[in-house]
Each structure stands twice: as C-alpha cells, then as structure tokens.
Amino acid sequence: MEVRVYDSDLYRIGQIENQTSIIWTRKFFEAGKFEIHAPITPKNLKLFTEKNIVSIKGAKEAGVIEDIEKEESDVKNEITVKGRFLSSYCDRRVIKATVNYDNAKIESVMRELLTMCDEIPLVELGELHGFDPTISFQATYRNLQTVLNKIAKYGLIGYRFTPDFDKHKIVFDTMQGVDHSYAQNKNKRVLFTESYNNLKNAIYKYNNQALKTVAIVGGQGEGAARTIVTVGSGSGLDLREIFVDARDISPDGLTAAQYKAALYQRGEEALNDARVAESLESEVDPQTNFTYKEDYDLGDIVTVKKKAWGLYMHQRITEIQEVYEYGGGYVVPTLGDPLPETIDWGE
Length: 347
Fold this sequence. Notes:
- By secondary structure, this protein is mostly beta strands.
- Helices cover about 15% and strands about 40% of the residues.
- The protein is built from 4 helices and 21 strands.
- The strands form 4 sheets. Strands 1, 2, 3, 4, 5, 6, 7, 13, 14, 18, 19, 20 and 21 form a 13-stranded mixed β-sheet that branches. The protein has a 3-stranded mixed β-sheet with strand order 9-12-11, with no helix packed on it.
- It starts with a strand and ends in a 10-residue tail after the last strand.
- Residues about 340-345 have low confidence and may be disordered.
C-alpha cells in the first residue's frame, strides 16, 4: 500500500519507504483518523513532519500529521505518525456570529456554516445534493466541527473534505449512504453472517448508561420567569431526565414560537447524543462475498445476522478501519453507534 506525502498546499513531496503498518479509520459523522508506522530513515524523517498531508492509494480522504513519535532501541527503530483527516480543519474554526435556522435543510446549513467562518485555505464547496433532512437551531461562538458533527448525526448526513491533488484544492462534500439492508428490495442486499465468512472476530457492544429519555431545556430568564421546554417522554424506571442549559440561545429577532422551537431543537440534540450505544465490529476480507467500496461503503446500511447471539439487525456503517500490515490487509466495519470515548452527563 503506497503512502504518499504532500505539503499543506497539496503538492506531492515524496513517498514513504517500507511502512510496516497503516491503520486508516474512516468515519461518517466526523473526521476520521490514521496511524502509520515506518522505519526511521533520512527520507522518512524528512517527509513525516508536522502539517504534511498523507494519503494512501485508492482513498477518497487524506490526513494531516498532528502527532509524531520516534523510538530507537535494541529491538526497534521506528517512527509513528498519527493525525486526523482533512475535515478536522473545521476544528480550527469558530462560528463568530449568531445564526438562526428555522426548518432549514441540513445540507445547506452545513455548507453555509463553513463559508461563514474564517476561510480554510484551499477549501471550496462541492456539489449540492439536495438532501431532505431539516433542522431548526441557533448557534453562537461554537466550534465549527462540533456543530457539524452534531447536525450531521442528527440528520444522518455524513461529510468529508476530499483532496484534489491535481488542482490543489479541497472539496467539501456531503453524503447519505445507500440502504443495502434486507429491510428493502430496491438496492443490492448486503449481509454480514458466519455462513458468508464475513463475520469473524466479531465484537458486539450494548451500553445504555448515557441514555436519556426526557430533556428539560432552560432558556433565558430567571426563576419562574425562565423559559422552559420539555422534550421526550417516559415514566417509571423508563424516565431518564437530563437538564440542558440553553441560555446561549437568544430570543432576539425570533417570535415566541420560533424561540421555543430553537430550545426544543437543543433538547432533541441532547437526546440524540444520549442514546443507547449499540454497535458491532467484525474483521472482513474486502474481497469476500461482498466487495468493499463496490457493494458497500462507509455510511451504507447493511444487515447483520449472528444466530448464536440471537442477533439480527439493520445498521448503518458509521466507521470503517482499514488495516494494512505484513503484506496484506483487511477492513473492520463498525455498524451502529459505538459508545463515545467520553460520556457527557450534562450539568
């Protein structure tokens, strides 16, 4: 697998020698990440430097080097670089104005938010696909990537920065994925199961610790005069409440109904972040039964059947880890919503 290196202006400056391991993790609702191990050589040391961009053959994404580790001992002489994909540039920007959206198409909102922030070098908008999901919300001085991740997950719309190395530009694009599950009959169906030999070393995870069923959202005002809206439902042990402080949402320029709608939307976002985490990971030969990137890809919905566990579900592929080492490679799709690295328990 070729590892090509570019400068921050997307001009190719070389290719890595004799890498021993590549872990290329693609994510649908946020920036992916990578990790590359290679021997320490003068050439590799020169190429593996901060801000340089790496890409592997056949990838739609590229990553920026953010973490460098060099190790020399009697048994090891290795440089390891890590980083995130180019959409992580959004983490460097803040929305510096108050934006209000009322039932606006999420795809258009994402594109507009990107253009409202300080310009990210080389980045331009790609094709507008016209996806239907809408959202109503207000944001002020919030991190651009945090907002994009939240509304992407809310509307089930993925996004990425795709490099064009020939034209030295980065294209912002959105995608929805294709339903290949057995719950439909329009598209080719994709099934992960033991009998197809594409469900080995499977790890199923279920966690409901972060689950909340009701969000109590507090807007502006004090005491009894504070605007409060309640989102969701539940009773008895099924009632799991969370309080959401939404004082940052201003009623200025909004009707009473629009203001409450913005608060309601904030509550829905909180509940969307506080769902049951259910996921399944499995090693897959990219050429066995179904061909990776042809029959299924990141963001697509597929079906999983594991009879011994009584497991049958239709889930979106939210993450795909490509692993290349020892002269071979395999992929590890993650279906569903994995448990976040940190749980936000609210205030």
